[in-house]
Amino acid sequence: MSETHMSAESDVTIRLVGISKYFSGVPALRDVSVEFRQGEVHAILGENGAGKSTLMNIISGTLQPSEGDIIFEGQPIKQMTPEIAASNGIGICFQHPAILDDLSIEENLLVALSASALSEQRSPAALRQMLETVGLDLPLRMRAGEMTVAEKHLLEIGKALAVRPRLLILDEPTASLDQDATETLFSLVRKAAAEGTAVVYITHRLGEIRQIAQRVTVLRDGKVRGGSLVREIGDAELVGLIVGRTLEAAFPPKAAGLSQEIGLSVAGLSGGGLTNVCFDLPRGQIIGVAGVAGNGQATLMRAMAGLQASQGTIELRGQALSQAALLEAAAFMPSDRHREGVASGLTVRENATFSALEKFASGGIMSRKKEHEKVSEIFGELAVKTPSMDAPILSLSGGNQQKVVMSRAMLSEPGLVVADEPTQGVDVGARFEIYRILRDVCDAGTPVIVNSSDAVELQGLCDKVIVMSRGHVVATLEGEEVTEERIVAAAVNSETHDHADAVKSGGHMKRLRHFMQSDNAPVVPLAIVAVLLGLYVNAQNENFLSVYNINNIFLLATALGFIALGQTIALLMGGIDLSVGPLAGFLVVVASFFVTDDMSGTMVAVGFLIMLAGAVAIGTINGVLIRYANFTPIAATLAMYIAIQGMSFLLRENPDGYISYAVTDWINWQLGPFPVAFLVLVAITLAGEYVLRNSRSGWRLRAVGSNEDAARRVGIPIDITYIAGYIACSVLTGFGAVMLMAQIGVGDPRQGVNYTLSSITAVVFGGSSLAGGRGTFIGTVLGAVLLTEVLSAVTFLNLSQTYQYFFQGVLIVVAALIYSAVRGGRAAR
Predict the structure, then answer these.
(1) The dihedral of CA 252, 257, 259, 260: what is its sign?
(2) 180-184, 500-504, 514-518, 804-808: which has the highest mean pLDDT?
(3) Per DSSP, what are the bridge partners of residue 16?
(4) Among 339-353, 502-516, 642-656, 778-792, whose mean pLDDT is lowest?
């Protein structure tokens, strides 16, 4: 196979010359040279691990090449970064969508836009048009975590198209799309190419190449194995280039004769959007599930695996199984391997065997030899490519991770195999192996049910296919009826689809659900609890709601509020700052040398500037330790906790250095029952909340905590964001130190330490997630007020200090239960 002649330089959007990439000395790409031309769809084929995604990550700036040159529109790029790629008009749709689950759909679109595009396309109308372009009809304020896998892929495509790219990279874009969505995508790709965009299209589906691409390049083992115009090469030759060998048939032969024995029987299955689903599966047959995405297929698969509660009966070889029994009997292969398929903290071997450990044990003792032999055998059958069995699972390519998920299903020796999109993101060679394994399992007597958005796959693999719409079975195809045309016709000719109905119905309820899923939802119960607590305690002691005590509560809450705001920033980034308490006390000790009655106004001002500089320095050190010295946030800030506390005692062994009364009075100035400092806290909180929701800085902060890898892929400068976040955390702690200084009036090295735990408690009260990405400044300040109110209530009720900690603990547990219940599951749509 020979390359066609090289195009004119002006027609080439990007040229890669001699690109190589090594990971720990192991080559992922070796001397790859390829060019992508204006107005042309260029397909890249190859097995999982062939280097396709690595090559795309180099083009988009996510990875840097070890060797080679990148030439964009005739100009060499010294170092491609996501920011440079975006500014040059390179849009990429990743195989695993770079969607930030903790941000709304609107925020996901906005954070992906460049500064120039942002000013043009920020209006809700423009953003809705972006969604409509890719066939999505979803509320902009909906949290991205509520979307299905297919919807996330469509949103990823919408983000890539939104930058009006000169080069568009699509990495497995149709992996989870149904027929309608795939046709929509193809139409968009053709339109982009017609407007002069160079399109790089990565896929494992050979049939798509004929529909969409003009040119194809094949990678194998990190090298270019050939390239050609699509019309000049046949499928057999392409497959040979991809896998390095010939494959005689894509699908194994189906069952020769029809068995009378029913292996699996489902009757009247309802619940979770399913309505009276019924089908029988004879022994030795594979049944497929088809339909437009969002019509109950995924729910059916989860019900069959015992993961979804349902009514009706499921009989396996004549024995009715309960939900608990299904959990034991069924091996489930989820479509979303990142969320449900792999345990990211475990090795390849551990991911393959954790559901079948008892099969490698004798007398309760694991046999590593037996485990290794069995895993090696199944990995050989599925051609799993891994550096070693004890390599981290995330070091494998997406397709190889999927093969590990299937290996686990096979090793558990299940009574039923439930495969939801089993070949999603899997290369052509491994796909054939998966088909063979499923057929072998079926031939051995284990029922197999497969959900797939690929009608060709269902036609070639399945003996029987049920087609679903709105949670109903609208067609059952058997034998010769199982064809691509009949499957697609049955799916698209049903009257309506559940997906559309769900989006268009129940507007008020959906708005309420979206608010309950929002970061500011905890504000309402917090405010109610605070008011009810105040009324109750005042009924026991009428002085509780006096102007003096209200002022005192707000004054005490101000110091905690500022420190907790800083802690919120750290938690939003997925970190934590254990040093805030000692930092507040240390800054008060520093102030005790300058902010005194015997110092001039100039020295007092110098003292405040030194406090600010100290806060900035501590925040910078924390950020640098975490991002550049590879400290965990806990380790870095705990070390800082100890260091700062030690410095406080070096400066003052005992309380000394009394704060100026004039400064204290000025800081504690009040307006009616409200301290002016508290009103300043409220103003800063509202401004911070606005920035958090409506500015690029706020989106970046939450994006880093939501998913650092996805944030990096959309061009967010992770290190700078982290360091700036920790500086802001320390500066806000400095504001809290000013309030603490006015309250205690003396430089005491022992003060401030308790604010570390109190600030975390206030943030938890406010509903921020300890996992990062979600939080609210308003909730944090209300949490600080509620915590201070609880401490005051204990005193007014003449309770011992034990109750102070008891009530705090109860409130934290109740808050955690409420927030997890409200946010726990994906809202049904």
Answers:
(1) positive
(2) 180-184
(3) 34, 70
(4) 502-516
The total of other beta-carbon atoms located within 10 Å of residue 489's CB is 14
With beta carbons less than 8 A apart as the criterion, state whether 61 and 169 touch: no
Report the CATH fold assignment for 262-492: Rossmann fold (3.40.50)
Q: What is the pLDDT of residues 535-545, one digit of tens each?
A: 999 999 989 98
C-alpha to C-alpha distance for 591 and 586, rounded to whole angstroms: 9
Please give the backbone phi and psi of residue 282, each rounded to the nearest 5 degrees, phi first: -65, 155
Report the amino acid identity of residue 426. Answer: V
Which tokens sit at 510?
Answer: 């959906």
Tell me the residue type at 252.
P
Q: Within a 13 Å sphere around the CA of 458, how many CA atoms are in the beta-carbon half? A: 31
Q: Give CA–CA dist 109/433, Å, rounded.
A: 38
CATH 3.40.50.300 domain range(s) in the chain = 9-243, 262-492
What DSSP string describes 718-766? HHHHHHHHHHHHHHHHHHHHHHHHHHH-EE-TTTTTTHHHHHHHHHHHT
Structure tokens at 493: 């000719």
CATH node for 9-243:
3.40.50.300
**Higher-confidence residue: 516 or 351?**
351
Q: What is the 3-state secondary structure (H, E, C) of 89-124?
A: CEEEECCCCCCCCCCEHHHHHHHHCCHHHHHHHCCH
What is the Cα 191 distance to its own chain's centre? 30
Q: Please choose, from the candidates 718, 719, 707, 728, the residue with its C-alpha nearest in 3D space to the C-alpha of residue 568.
A: 728
Pairing of strands 67-72, 75-77: antiparallel
Residue with the two structure tokens 């600080």: 784
What CATH number has the domain spanning 522-535+542-823? 1.10.3470
pLDDT tens digit string along 539-590? 999 899 898 899 999 999 999 999 999 999 999 999 999 999 999 999 999 9
φ, ψ for residue 517 (rounded to 5)? -90, -5
Enumerate the CATH 1.10.3470 domain ranges in the chain, comma separated: 522-535+542-823
Measuring CA to CA, how many Å separate 182 from each of 132, 176, 187, 250, 681?
Answer: 15, 9, 9, 22, 51
Q: How far apart are the first and last CA of the chain?
A: 50
Model's pTM, two decimal places?
Answer: 0.72
456-459: long-range pairs with CB below 8 Å, 24+: 456/207, 456/484, 457/423, 458/288, 458/290, 458/482, 458/484, 458/487, 459/483, 459/484, 459/487
Backbone angles phi, psi at 226, to 5 degrees: 165, 160
